[in-house]
């Protein structure tokens, strides 16, 4: 196979290196006859990857990155019944067994069996079970019949691969944030963060029927792109009174639903980190009995945090305000399998041009380090890696 992959080598650094060819086995060496091996067609750089690369998690050097994977089946275990060599599939970033209580109830983001350290597994991510990442030429996917979403037509899938590659994470994640915030027909919505997940959340709010979707950020390039694809930008650099800024747009300082697509590396107007600022703003601007979806990542350990409390995930939230307003909060890893089939249909039937919305930009796998550096600078792009040159062709 001659596998190569994107390897985290230390804070601020990744390299494309030769890595082991995948096998039908678990990180602990167990044989996995329910697994398949994929030739990776596309694999994306995610903002969650950047948290590790910045040194803001306990990730160790040597970790093969990548949890947003679309691929072609090239080998199957003897227990795989519903997939065959040649199938083109989307891989949910969640590694899930399909058998435990959480999986049976649809909560595949917190599978109880695939990670000995805690609930929930993922490819190429710290503390998520040791599963090898898919920013590579080839990758192993366990519990394949349960996890993989097969595209109905290979040629159609390859023609829409820039959109379909978003099904592995950011589109279902954005949709989960919008849905759990209670977005529906006529909703007024505020999304914090104009990065790819924020744009995916905004796109999801729109197809759920929102009347207006605002996106707040400090990054002018990302705000310009958000406006270009039809959302209302809120330039947070122009003031620190978010309710007042929203009222200037809608006539009311409150919204029906708010979505935090920023997470624990949030920054305030001072330029310094304020990890709870977005959560506190969400409670302030969301109406009484409204909903707050939180697809933005929060961690239990952040060695680079601004204070000792935040280093262990303890944030200074004004939770009493949210309680007094009877607001609903929803957090946690997105259970991709709840949404990816419906979202696939929306893409295939031209209802959701997500690649254009997030400005999908294709680059070769061997240029991944440049992609990480560019993404970290805040460009208004979602980088899609092309390990075999199939997208470029």
UniProtKB/TrEMBL annotation:
Quote the EC number.
1.2.1.46
| Cofactor(s) the protein needs | Zn(2+)
Keyword terms: Metal-binding, NAD, Oxidoreductase, Zinc
Gene Ontology MF annotations: formaldehyde dehydrogenase (NAD+) activity; zinc ion binding
Q: Which residues form the Alcohol dehydrogenase-like N-terminal domain?
A: 34-152
Tell me the protein family, please. Answer: Belongs to the zinc-containing alcohol dehydrogenase family.
Return the PANTHER family for the record.
Answer: GLUTATHIONE-INDEPENDENT FORMALDEHYDE DEHYDROGENASE (PTHR42813:SF3), ZINC-TYPE ALCOHOL DEHYDROGENASE-LIKE (PTHR42813)
Protein's UniProt name: Glutathione-independent formaldehyde dehydrogenase
Q: Which organism is it from?
A: Pseudooceanicola marinus
